[in-house]
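Fold it.
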Amino acid sequence: MNPGARHLRQRAAPLALVSLLTACSGGSGPAAPPAPQPSSVALVRVSQPSTFPAGCDGVAPSGTLYTDTVAEPYLAVNPTSPANLIGAWQQNRWSDGGAQGLMLAASFDAGATWTLSRAAFSRCTGGNAGNRGDYARASDIWLAFSPDGAAYALSLSFSGLVLAAGSSSAMLVARSQDGGMSWGAPTALIQDGAQSFNDKGSITSDPLDARFVYAVWDRITSAQNGPSWLAVTSDAGASWQAARSIYDPGVRNQTLGNQIAVLPGGVVVDVFTEIDVSATGAMSASLRAIQSADHGGTWSAPVKIADLLAVGTRDPQTGAAVRDGSNLASVAVAAGGVIYVVWQDSRFSGGQHDGIALARSADGGGTWSPPAQVNALPAAAAFTPTVHVRADGVVAVTYYDLRNDTSDPATLLTDYWLVTSADAVSWRESHLSGPFDLDLAPDSRGLFLGDYEALASSGSELLPFFVQSSAGAQQTHTDLFLAFAPASLALATRAVTAEHQATAAVAAPFTVTPEWRRRVQQRIMLTLAQRFGDSRHFRQAETP
């Protein structure tokens, strides 16, 4: 980073932070949240008020449209120019799935300032039948930079309700060669009608070979299964191989949240959730991995990482559901090839509430460490974790928790946190933002900030990229922020107060009781309902 860019960033970020804090005072309505705990972390607001014209999606509404809301961000850093960041997010969330459009933004001063851009992933961002973006909604944005500086953006674009008559869905990828300022016409990796629905895609580039980029997703069918699907480019995006199934868990079962990790030497690992349905209708979920040594041509049998025992997050006062990262994982790879996975799990509290679990593999996904809890305050419900490994090997995890919530049923006070470790054993916690009122988030079968948030790094600086409700708002409104976490926050091995340092603990041997199992299964069912809505196949999952 050049000195001028750092100076600009240091000027801009504290001002944004001051604006965020002072907006909490004054006005009518519920009392303002308490001031955040002391923090040296500066925030820059990246999202802007929506400029989508009314009715730009071209269809009659089937749910509630929450204008001026953002959700589910992603962030990528250009390896050829670390001051070049690209961010992306859902803009104007619908209650019954997806958003009017996906916004993109580029920064060339390490995040101090941003220029908005668009790819034609839906009608509201320029999509039409001529450029394959003729879809009413878009969701699940994901970004990747190749080692040559080319950027790729992946969208789930769709029209109509899942598997409903007349519905359609596609995985669309767009490419940028100017750091995210402009995007080429989308390429359709797959396009389906009402008999299938493509969901929860991710895109990953080989960090050492710009020719190879991998897109992976699950494809739900009316035949009641959901295998993992893959599309690969081996010529830097000039063409894409035909999409195909790489793992099928069987009839009535499905995968979810597929993510590719590329290891040194080009070995490819797909980490995903598998949801299995027994003959009696009982549901269970586990985290699994498959491996390919030939750029996705052939794949190993799945290895189980851990059972997923999320019970999900709810407002302690009202019981209202939070649409969090239950039954999804976040994946990162260290420079040496160690894979880290984090997810929500209730095993550490005996099923009372979710904490943040971490497991790692040093042999390409063949074996995994037992899940260890990394959130610093085990007594507080924690949710929606994201993991990233800095170039020097420091492991970082961000998450939300409810430690500062009060007994006031009119608010759900939530904070955003960062824990860091040099050895994945001793962790230091830092406060990033909050408390903010999660009750001001859009309702998408649960209060919704995103099924995932984002975390990256530029040099030694960690860059959490996350959504929270807007300070001072009296109605549904969310914004997207970039936090600048100084390198000093990652020194987990240095002396810090006991309040802010913890050692990751593996859960003691436990037995899942029938009641605990019932709550886990209900959360799996809600996870499916949140993603597939009123589809006849998943309507049973609406049970809270």
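The CA atoms of residues 218 and 228 lie 5 Å apart.
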